Amino acid sequence: MLPVVLSSGLARGAINMAKHQTIVKSQSSISSFGEMDVLCTDKTGTITQDNIILERYMDVNGDDDMRVLRHAYLNSYFQSGLKNLIDLAIIERANSYNMDDLVNYYRIVDEVPFDFARRRMSVILEDRSGKRQLITKGAVEEILKICSYIDRDGVVTKLDDQTREEAFEVYFQHNNDGLRMIAVAQKNEIPNEHEFGIKDESDMVLIGFVGFLDPPKESAKPTIESLNQHGVDVVVITGDSLGVAKKVCSKVGIDTEVTYLGKDIDEMDDEQLRNVVGTCHLFAKISPVQKQRIVQAFQENNHTVGFLGDGINDALALKQADVGISVDTAVDIAKESADIILLKKDLTVLEKGILEGRKTIVNMIKYLEMAVSGNFGNMISVIVASLFLPFLPLLPVHILVQNLLSDLAQTGIPFDNCDDEDLQKPRKLESDRLVKFMAVFGPLSSVFDLMSFAVLYFVLGINTPEQASIFQAFWFTFGILSQALIIFIIRAKKPFTFKNKPSTVLVAVSALAVGITLLIVNTPIAYSIELVPLAPGHLMWVLGIVALYLISTAIVKHFVWTPLD
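Below the sequence we write its predicted structure tokens.
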């Protein structure tokens, strides 16, 4: 039954997750989803509103400067690559100032595309007079590395240590206030006949900064708190600068006391990285390869890791993670690399999906606990019976029918409800726990099998080969009824309470299995499987022993198993 229970549970989980705007590409990932105890995520769109607004365009002194916006606009407009949210925000603000006519005065000659190592991109433009200009925008530190000059109040001077520090001060001031900052630079000495490349991004003039605001979602903080309560540690891995990432994370309740930058990760070997990842919840200015290394370090520390990302730079980490999670608006390579697709980029949607994954695992554990303990107990009972009975306790046909009806009752397990306590932390299929459960409840079921034998043999006097069919009918009935009803004891942490009611499906299929069994053993149908109808007195004994078994199992589960669990 394990394949049936597993497939049914995963299919049910996939359907329920779809109701919560979560599409499962690979059903096997649902169990990993439920086991996940570390969620690595980007900041933009997940924690923030994914609605980047251009807030400031300023010169190197921090004063508003339309020239900086104009250069940033030309760079964003003419670049041929995929325009990201920053490009779109720049273009939208420039168009609000009627700068769209500006592009008619220029034509693009060439470009140096963006990459995650340089963290900048450049375009080479030519105006109507034939003058060429190279305009570069990108991460502040990377732009300053290629600048030799600075434009202050229209005067271009050498970028020395003092002016560099002053420019950094303007950047840090706004960055620490929560603005995502990029720098803009340009130069005019551009050769006419030339194959352009990275080497041309040198000796540039820093002209200013552009600042963006992407405020956190109102739902982010309570959702992160809820994920933490459910045993999932949220770790932010972003390519943004530390200042803005720290500001956002502090607003949503993510610990920013310990942080690491991409350059710190590069200086660590794998062992050093494994030693520090558990203490850090914010990694900033991280490259795609570094994202993959961080995820791998968590995995090597015995964590089940999920990674949420939607960009080209997330593909490696999505593949590396135990559960790759993306969104339907992501780039194609991110969606191809992911196991789960969110129809809404929101941690609230993700939390509901995690709980559905845990329900699937919990219900699989219920089945396994019942199966291993029941089979172990039956094995003990058959061995004992073979030592003193002059006939077989059950014929092969009885075992086949009994298994069929017991399996019918068990088909409801994947659709069962779960205790809230079982969903509070990540769950895994643990063989040690199953062995302990089997060692406690297997022999317990054998005690009541032996009680049935004793009642039949000594009390009812059914102990000769001629009475074998009566004996077999009695134990056949006890076996199915006990297996069908013990589900309701094993399924809940606190049996016989109404705190966690069984699902309608589980009740229905269990009642059907019990009903078919009683129909067989109380009508002439019994003869068709080499049994005899059960006498009313014998049926009362069966029901009494089943009741004792259920009560005893509930007591043992409460007083013996719960302390061990």
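The radius of gyration is 34 Å.
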